[in-house]
Specification:
One of its GO terms (molecular function) is DNA-binding transcription factor activity. InterPro entries: HTH_MarR-typ, MarR/SlyA-like, WH-like_DNA-bd_sf, WH_DNA-bd_sf. It holds the Pfam family MarR_2. The protein is of the alpha+beta class and 182 residues long. The chain has two domains: 35 residues, no CATH class; 128 residues, Arc Repressor Mutant, subunit A. Helices cover 54% and strands 13% of the residues. It has eight helices and four strands. The chain has a two-stranded antiparallel sheet with strand order 1-2. Helix 3 crosses helix 6. The longest helix is centred in the middle third of the chain and has 22 residues.
C-alpha cells in the first residue's frame, strides 16, 4: 500500500492501481468516482497536462495584480469595478440579483454600492413594484470611469495576449467567453 492510499498490488479494470478508500482525501475521490460527476469520466491514456486551476491560477493572480494599480488610479476597488461591469451589461436590476451575478454576499456589497453612489457612479432607488427592493443603475459618470479603466486594463493584457498569434488569440478569447460563468 502506497502512502497515497493506492494499493499497488492489484490492477483495476483499466489496468491501473485500485484505490483503497482509507485516507479522507482518497475517500472523497472514491465517492466521486462511485457516484459520478465530471471527474468520473474515463480519461484516455494520454500524456497528462496540468490541471486548469494549476495553469489559470498563476495567470489570474498576475492579471489581478496588474489591474490593482489601474483601478486605484481610477478611484475604483476591484469589487467596485466588478459592480460597474455587471451594471453596464444591464443584466441585473436589484442588489440581490447583482450580488448573485457577481458571486458576492448581498450584505457585504452594500459598502461598495454606497461608495459608488457617493462617487456618482451608480444610482439606487426603490422599485416601484416592491418598495423593499432597491433598483440599481449605472450613471454616465460610472460608465465613463468603467470604460477608461477597462481600456487601460485591456491595453495591459497585451503583455499576455501578445505571445499568441492572431488565430490563437481569437480561439483563446472565444473559448474563455464560452467557459466563463454568466
Amino acid at each position: 500500500m502506497g502512502r497515497d492510499g493506492v494499493d499497488d498490488r492489484y490492477g483495476g479494470e483499466d489496468g491501473g492501481a485500485m484505490l483503497r478508500c482509507e485516507s479522507r482525501h482518497v475517500r472523497i475521490v472514491c465517492a466521486r468516482i462511485r457516484y459520478g460527476n465530471a471527474y468520473a469520466r474515463p480519461v484516455a491514456a494520454t500524456p497528462r497536462r496540468p490541471d486548469l486551476a494549476a495553469m489559470l491560477g498563476p495567470l489570474i493572480r498576475e492579471l489581478m495584480a496588474a489591474e490593482a494599480p489601474v483601478l486605484k488610479a481610477h478611484g475604483l476597488t476591484m469589487w467596485g469595478y466588478v459592480v460597474l461591469l455587471a451594471l453596464d451589461r444591464g443584466t441585473v436590476r436589484t442588489q440581490a440579483a447583482l450580488a448573485e451575478a457577481i458571486g458576492a454576499d448581498k450584505t457585504r456589497i452594500i459598502a461598495t454600492l454606497d461608495g459608488l453612489q457617493d462617487d456618482g457612479y451608480i444610482e439606487r432607488y426603490p422599485d416601484p413594484d416592491d418598495r423593499r427592493v432597491r433598483v440599481l443603475a449605472i450613471t454616465a459618470a460610472g460608465r465613463a470611469v468603467k470604460d477608461a479603466a477597462q481600456a487601460e486594463i485591456q491595453r495591459g493584457e497585451e503583455r499576455w495576449l501578445g505571445v499568441l498569434d492572431p488565430e490563437e488569440r481569437r480561439v483563446f478569447l472565444r473559448a474563455l467567453q464560452r467557459m466563463a460563468p454568466g
